Amino acid sequence: MNATSITADNSAANPGALYTPYVRTLLDLWFTFHIVGGHFLIPVLLATFLFSQAKRDAALINLGLTFSLMSVFNCLLLYANQYVGPEPNKTLCIFQAAAFDAGPPMWGAAIFALVVQVWTKVEAVFGKERKPLRWLIIMLAAPYVAFLGFFVLTYVLGSQHPDAVTRERRMLYCSIESRVASLTSIGFTAIVSFSAIGLAARMCFRMYQFLRLVRRTQRQVNAVRLVLRLVAFMTYLFIALSASLWSIRDHSDTFVRDIYVSTLSISYFLIFATQSDVVDAWCFWRGRRARRAADAGAKVDTPPRPSGALLRPGDLESIPGSAAPSAPSSPVRADARFQV
Fold first, then answer.
1. Which range, 48-62, 233-247, 248-262, has the best average confidence (pLDDT)?
2. Phi, psi of 176, rounded to the nearest 5 degrees
3. With left for phi above 0 and alpha for psi between -120 and 50, is residue 253 left, alpha or beta?
4. CA–CA–CA angle 234, 113, 281 (5° rounding)
5. Could you read off the pLDDT of 266-306 as tens digits, one per residue?
6. How much is the pTM?
7. For the ranges 90-94, 96-100, 194-198, 309-313, which has the lowest average pLDDT?
8. Would you say 256 and 245 are in contact if contact means Cβ atoms under 8 Å apart?
9. 3-state SS string over the chain?
C-alpha cells in the first residue's frame, strides 16, 4: 500500500483520517519490535555478556548497543505521545529525522568494526601481532563518531528547511526530504558495508584454513559456530541496511522495509542469545556435567571451554593420543586464544 493512497483530501482538517486500521497495525508492530527488542532483550543480553562467564568481544557488545540506541530514537514520538494526530513538535520531528538518517552509517561502522576485530583475532591465531588497545578504542568509537557527524548534518539541513521534515511522509516516524542528506548517508554506508563484506569473506577463508589445521585435535569448535552466527546476522543486517537506505532515498511504499528494519534488535537477540554458554548463564541452576563431558572427550585436567574459545595455551599438547604438531609444520600458534 502506498502512503499517498491513504492520504485523504480532508487530512488537514482531520489528521486522524491518515491513520487507517492498516497504518495503526503497522504502528503497533513498529513500536512493539523496538520496545521488546531494543529496550528489554538487548540490554538483558548485553548484561549477560558483561557480567557472566559468557564473555563476548567488546565490538559485538557495541553493535548491540547501537541497535538499542536506535530503538530509543525510533520511539521518540511514542514517548511524547505525538505518533498520531497533528504533526508533532517541529524540533522533536527534526531531531528524530536526523537520528534516523544517522542510524545506517552508525550500523555500518559498527559491523565493520566488529569484522575488523574478529579478523585481527583470526590473524593472531596464525601468529600475527594483535592490535594495541588504542585500536580497539578507535573501533568502538567509530560508530558514534559516524552517527554524530550525520546527525549534525541532517539536523542542520532540517533546521534550515523545516518544511522538508514531516511525519506524514512515512507515518511511522519523522523523515526529511533532502538529496544531500540521503546521498551522503547512502554513500558512506555503502563504502563501509562493502568493505566489511570483503573483509568477512577473507576472514571466512582464514577460518577454513584454521579448521583444516585443528580438526584432528578438536572435537568442538564453538567459536567457529559463533563466527557462522555472525555471518548469518551480517547477512540479515546488510539486507536491513539496504532497506533502510532505500527508504531514505525513496519515500514511497516504505512500510514493509521499515518493519523489517525494526526487527534488527530481536534478530540480534535470537542469533546471539541461543548459544549454549548464554543459556547456561541464565539457567544457572543447571549443571554442566553433560556438556563438559562432551566437550572434554579424551582431554583431562583442562577447564571448561567458553563458547567463544578455540585455542588455549597447551590445547594441542593436552590431548592424549594426539602428538602436537611441530612449530614449523603449522602456522597456528599453540598458545593462541580466539574468542569473539
1. 48-62
2. -115, 140
3. left
4. 70
5. 999 999 998 888 888 898 777 555 555 555 554 544 455 44
6. 0.77
7. 309-313
8. no
9. CCHHHHCCCCCCCCHHHHCCHHHHHHHHHHHHHHHHHHHHHHHHHHHHHHHCCCCCCHHHHHHHHHHHHHHHHHCHHHHCCCCCCCCCCHHHHHHHHHHHHHHHHHHHHHHHHHHHHHHHHHHHHCCCCCCCHHHHHHHHHHHHHHHHHHHHHHHHHHHHCHHHEECCCCCCCCEECCHHHHHHHHHHHHHHHHHHHHHHHHHHHHHHHHHHHHCCCCCCCHHHHHHHHHHHHHHHHHHHHHHHHHHHHCCCCCHHHHHHHHCHHHHHHHHHCCCHHHHHHHCCCCCCHHHHHHHHCCCCCCCCCCCCCCCCCCCCCCCCCCCCCCHHHCCCCCCCCCCC
Q: Considering the chain, what is the average pLDDT of its residues?
A: 77
- Mean pLDDT highest for which of 27-36, 197-206, 324-333? 27-36
CB of 22 within 8 A of CB of 1? yes
By residue count, the chain amounts to 340
What residues contact 259, with CB distance under 8 A and at least 6 apart?
26, 29, 30, 33
Q: How many CA atoms lie within 13 A of 12 on its CB side?
A: 1
Q: Which residues pair with 166 in a beta bridge?
A: 175
The cell for 212 is 583444516
Residue 320 CB neighbour total at 10 angstroms: 8
54-111 pLDDT per residue, tens: 888 899 999 999 999 999 999 999 999 999 889 999 999 999 999 999 999 999 999 9
> Is the distance from CB of 175 to CB of 258 less than 8 angstroms?
no
